[in-house]
Design brief:
Strand content: over 45%
Number of strands: 7
Oligomer: single chain
CATH superfamily: Nucleoside Triphosphate Pyrophosphohydrolase
Structural class: alpha+beta
Shape: globular
Number of helices: 2
Largest sheet: 7 strands, mixed
CATH topology: Nucleoside Triphosphate Pyrophosphohydrolase
Radius of gyration: 13 Å
């Protein structure tokens, strides 16, 4: 099982999402927990690498397992705040957008975001 960690960044009812063309879905900043790294360290590192900002983790939001392309993943999502304006730093992402949580139903979302969709609708 692969372990992942990411940032659920919400401001004024909008969530920060990255569009990943190769997967054809929207996801939050985050990635694979490296050896010797905690999930919280991963969330902070990945935000810097993917969108070029420092994050402050506020609290755990969700931890759960999902399956994607026949692999099992454990994902830790943290409510986080950022300083500065997010800008794509890695070529795997096509765009970064603030999207109204109430408008997520029509979007192609990563499996881990699908898991938390009911909670996001209430924000």
């Amino acid at each position: 099982m692969k372990e992942l960690a990411g940032n659920v960044i919400i401001e004024d009812g909008k969530i920060l999402l990255l569009y990943r063309k190769d997967e054809d879905h929207w996801e939050v900043p985050g990635g694979k927990v490296e050896e010797g790294e905690s999930p919280t360290e991963t969330a902070v590192r990945e935000a810097k690498e993917e969108i070029g900002v420092d994050v402050e983790l506020k609290k755990p939001f969700f931890s759960g397992e999902f399956q994607h392309d026949g692999e099992l993943f454990l994902w830790h999502g943290y409510l986080a705040e950022i300083e500065g304006e997010p800008e794509i730093q890695e070529g795997k992402f096509e765009k970064v957008e603030w999207i109204e949580c109430s408008e997520l139903d029509g979007k192609e979302l990563a499996p881990n975001i699908e898991m938390i969709l009911p909670s996001l609708r209430d924000i």
